Amino acid sequence: MGAAADAYDEALRAAAEHARSWLHELPDRRVPPAATADEVRARALELLSQPPAGAAQVVDELAALAEPGLMAINSGRFFGWVMGGVLPASLGADWLVSSWDQNTGMRAATPGVAGVEEAAGEWLVHLLGLPAGSAVGFSTGATTANTSCLAAGRHAVLTGAGWAVEEEGLAGGPRVRVLVGADSHVSVDLALRYLGLGRPEQVAVDDQGRLRTDALARALDGAPAGTPTIVCLQAGNLHSGAFDPLGDAADLAHRHGAWVHVDGAFGLWAAASPALAHLVGGLDRADSWATDAHKTLNVPYDCGVAVVRDPALMRAALGVRTSYLLSSDVTDPVDVTVEMSRRARGVPVWAALRSLGQAGVAALVDRLVEHAQALARGLAGLDGAAVLNDVVYTQVCVSFGSDERTAAVTAAVISDGTVWMSGSRWAGRAVLRVSVSNWSTDAADVEASVDAVRRAVAAVDGRRRGTGTPPAP
Fold this sequence. Notes:
The chain has helices at residues 2-25, 37-48, 55-66, 88-100, 111-127, 142-160, 165-168, 186-194, 213-221, 246-255, 311-318, 347-380, 403-416, 443-465; strands spanning 78-79, 135-139, 177-181, 201-203, 229-234, 259-263, 288-292, 304-308, 386-387, 395-399, 420-426, 429-435. It is α/β, with parallel strands linked by helices. It has 2 domains: 91-352, 3-Layer(aba) Sandwich (Aspartate Aminotransferase, domain 2), CATH 3.40.640; 359-465, Aspartate Aminotransferase, domain 1. The strands form 2 sheets. Strands 2-8-7-6-5-3-4 form a 7-stranded mixed β-sheet, sandwiched between helices. The chain has a 5-stranded mixed β-sheet with strand order 1-11-12-10-9. Helix 1 runs parallel beside helix 3 (55-66) and helix 6 crosses helix 11. The relative contact order is 0.14. One of its GO terms (molecular function) is aromatic-L-amino-acid decarboxylase activity.
């Protein structure tokens, strides 16, 4: 038995050394990867063709072959795709989760991690101002969290229409109508596809991507009474950071008998801040909510959170009982996600909450917004730049005039390597999109990032005049 335990030591020592090296290099590291996936794949295949190696050697080889291809996502200068960093306490907890190797589906079988996850879920519900007693499931991300929540919604509206979807399937039953804002996130569409609900109907939005309640009212009035309906609202637009009028829209939808779901992958965390809670007014009046802890809360990938007001509806949609499982009379983890087998991804959430406390979570969210607003001010001062959105949360969209110039600036920023900001299209225009999500971002990162974009603008304009050179790597 001792020999088996000792066998882990060399691998863990090697992993710790490489992890420390990676984390200490982040402040000065170029953000983009230096190697392509094809290059890494070729080397990985070459190593697999060699004789077996010891655990420490394998870890050393893995670090060496992967490191050039790593994106510095947990750098304070990474602002792409709404990806958070990793809080120290959550990283340590995640290492323990891997070491414990608990399959967190049955609370009676794995009470150590199930109990920690339940406590984390209760705290999240409290922190976000959601109804006490709501069911909480820890999923892979917002896509599967949306899927879990909308499965409960599908069950609820079809049961109300007299159709047992879990027994009969969708064929032959009444069609479920799903309404979303025209600027909703594609993860909602994907969740609906998983659930067999098809493409949703789009409702008009304003210039910041917020769903218009007058348009929602017309859409709801346009269907016969009793039509099974789900309304998906958004807390945090991917480009503008804007929030749908959650309370008013939820009340309107409920008057028509609809289920109300809130997709809040990163925006739901505004509810944790007294200074920002007005953005999510009426949030608690929905029926389900989805968010990511690996975004704003900065726990390691992957960790989504699905919350449903009525646990019985979530169990009815997702729960499973069979003779070989250790079932209980209360909600099991397997009853609230789309997975039967999973790691204890809620444990790093508990560690994040324990390390920050309620005030610390609020300060984290406030700080992200402050840095986004500082970036917007700095970028708006660059030649030909215009910030296109109202920077009320963590998102900034910048145009540099024509689509061609904006795309060229975006490419030059990425080539420079100091910072990563994503190119995108919003409101019919090419934009440089900034998403501030990392707990470690500070004022120096903001200043360095604005300077990097300034260099990119100068390089692009210099090339157009035939006098410039590309940004230095």
